Each structure stands twice: as C-alpha cells, then as structure tokens.
Amino acid sequence: MPEATPDPDVDDTGQLRERIATSVREFRARSGRSLADVAAAAGIGKSTLHAIEAGDANPGIETLWALARALRVPFGTLLDEPTPAVRVVRAGEGPTVVSEASTMQAHLLASTGHACRAELYHLSLQPGPVRDADAHTAGTVEHVLVTAGRLRVGPSGGAVDLDPGDLATFPGDLGHRYEALTDGTTAVLLLEYR
C-alpha cells in the first residue's frame, strides 16, 4: 500500500493554533478589554479564552465565530497570518504599473478593503525632542511615507528607520513615536480611522 503524501496546502495544527492565539490576543489587547469581558461577550469561560490566547487550545468553528463577534472583527482575520507590527515598503518596492501614454509609473504602497475615514497630512520634522504619541481610537492605522531626510517612526519599542521613498504602516491605536534623524525631514501621513 503506497504511503500517503502530506498535503502542503494543509496548515499544521500547531501553526494554526499559534496564529489564532496571536490574533485573538492582539485584537483583545487593541480593544483594551479584559479576558473576562471578551470571554463573557463570546459566551465562553475565561480559562478557555486564556488557553486559546496561550496557544494551548484548539478552538472549533463555533468558538471562533463567537470570538470574532465579541472582538468585532471578521472571522477570517482570526485565521490570517499575523501582520507585522510595522509593515515597511522601501523606495521602489511594491507592485508597479506603467502608463501606456506617458512616462508615469505608479507603485502601490498600501490599500484597504473597507470603508473608513481617512486624513492626509504633510509632516515637517527637525532633530530634537521626539514626538511620543498616545494611542488613537481602536482600529486606527497610520501610513507614513518619507519624502525627504530620515525618520524613525512606529510603535513604541518597535520603531523603524526610513529613508526617502520608504513607507511604514503600523497600528496607530498603540503608543507610537516620530523622530527626525536629519534636518529637513518631511513625510506624508495617511491616518485611517476604522
């Protein structure tokens, strides 16, 4: 009898369990809600939620649906690969489309698939005191594109250094910082409020 070949498209249970643990833990932390509050809203025990967040439980579909409703997130986001705390797109990276009638090129830096309020800002910064920003409302995302100089930006404890043309995307609903590393630093900031 031939030996069964593992299906490479089937996710290892341990990896999926860890992915769910990370997603549930991060969404709960971003919402500012306690274990007890989310567990009660989902109709599960606090110890069950703790085990899920620790990666020690293998929740079924019904439990995941209940958690998604309690956390007010789409079901699939609990299964998705975790997104990095800061997403960086370096100058010249990203999908590019070229105009057929001119010399224009467009590099996709970020996209969203949902309705939200968006605000666009031009930032001017100089070296000196660092701008430590408090967390914005839950679900806020910041996209920062450096246009001149050098900028250190991102969540407190996870900031990244950017050069002109580099883009960083990170959760604005966590404490974060802006620090100019050179004179004449400028950037474009797009704030998304979900």
What features would you describe in this structure?
Helix content is 24%, strand content 29%. It is α+β, with helices and mostly antiparallel strands and 194 residues long. It folds into two domains: 13-78, 434 Repressor (Amino-terminal Domain); 87-193, Jelly Rolls (Sandwich), CATH 2.60.120.10. The strands form three sheets. Strands 1-9-6-11-4 form a five-stranded antiparallel β-sheet, with no helix packed on it. The chain has a four-stranded antiparallel β-sheet with strand order 5-10-7-8, with no helix packed on it. Strands 2-3 form a two-stranded antiparallel ribbon. The longest helix has 19 residues, at 13-31.
Could you list some keywords that capture this structure?
Jelly Rolls; alpha+beta; disordered N terminus; 4 helices; four-stranded antiparallel β-sheet; 2 domains; 434 Repressor (Amino-terminal Domain); 24% helix; five-stranded antiparallel β-sheet; 194 residues; single chain
